[in-house]
Write a structure and sequence with these properties.
186 residues; mainly beta; UDP N-Acetylglucosamine Acyltransferase, domain 1; 8-stranded mixed β-sheet; 7-stranded parallel β-sheet
Length: 186
């Protein structure tokens, strides 16, 4: 489905939105927009699953996908106020992922930390049924396993295994739990 057709038919009166190169955005179904339409910027490829929900009444979300980069979002994903995402390589977000307010997801550090370290650009992978708490960051090279929870204010820099609660700076597993593989968080 072409996102520009959705924008033209939407009933978002008074809603500001912008898209750069909408032909690079593919939707498996009509996204759910509550509030402002998110900004999609860049020349990369965006693939949105069915029933992706963008909920923003205070702060619009911004998804920047640079040339040759890919953003894949699974079915039933939810993005809240002020989510910022930047892909220079690849960011993959699974099905039924919930992303709380003011979460930042980057697959790059944007610049070198010091002269003897290279610029970091590494794919990010977020599994199915993951909940990322408010004011968290998911940084280059991070991976989060299915059914995991990232506590509010955490910074994910490495691998978080499936069915884990992780918190802190950097995020560390503080608890593991069992859930059926087909369980979906409400």
């Amino acid at each position: 489905m072409d996102l520009s057709n959705i924008m033209n038919r939407s009933r978002l009166k008074g809603c500001l939105y912008s898209l750069v190169r909408p032909r690079n955005i593919q939707c498996a179904g009509r996204p759910i927009i509550n509030g402002y339409f998110p900004d999609f910027l860049g020349e990369g490829h965006v693939r949105l699953g069915k029933n992706c929900c963008f909920r923003s009444f205070r702060l619009r979300q911004q998804f920047t996908v640079l040339k040759d980069a890919v953003l894949e979002v699974g079915d039933n994903a939810l993005f809240n106020d002020g989510v910022v995402l930047c892909a220079v390589k690849s960011i993959k977000i699974g099905h039924s992922v919930k992303v709380a307010d003011m979460v930042y997801i980057y697959d790059t550090h944007f610049h070198q930390v010091c002269p003897d370290e290279p610029l970091t650009e590494a794919s990010v992978s977020i599994g199915n049924n993951v909940w990322i708490g408010a004011n968290s960051m998911v940084l280059a090279g991070a991976s989060i396993g299915d059914h995991s929870v990232i506590a509010a204010g955490s910074i994910v820099t490495g691998a978080i295994p499936a069915r884990s609660l992780a918190a802190g700076l950097p995020a560390r597993v503080i608890k593991t739990f069992e859930v059926p593989g087909d369980w979906i968080r409400r």
